[in-house]
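Propose amino acids for all 92 sites.
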């Protein structure tokens, strides 16, 4: 693929990073403050799905699934419930 998407940071302060496939040009992709983790790139390479705590920061059961465009724009929450929705994956 063209990109690597991963996450890094201290517990409760994680961010999603994107970089070129060779590891160059790494930069933060996710909005700050969500403890974002578990990213997955869509099959068309246009979106990233991930877990974050934007609306329930610090609550172990408050993680929701979000998507954003590969450039970090157009953040959308996909789930909204009392359970921790974690590690989203794209289907065919």
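Proposal:
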């Amino acid at each position: 693929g063209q990109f690597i998407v991963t996450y890094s940071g201290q517990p409760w302060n994680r961010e999603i990073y994107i970089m070129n496939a060779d590891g160059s040009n790494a930069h933060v992709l996710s909005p700050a403050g969500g403890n974002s983790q578990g990213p997955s790139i869509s099959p068309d390479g246009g979106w990233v799905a991930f877990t974050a705590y934007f609306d329930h920061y610090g609550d172990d059961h408050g993680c929701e699934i979000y998507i954003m465009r590969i450039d970090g724009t157009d953040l959308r929450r996909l789930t909204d419930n009392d359970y921790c929705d974690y590690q989203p994956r794209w289907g065919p």
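The first strand starts at residue 3 and ends at 10. The chain has one domain: 3-77.
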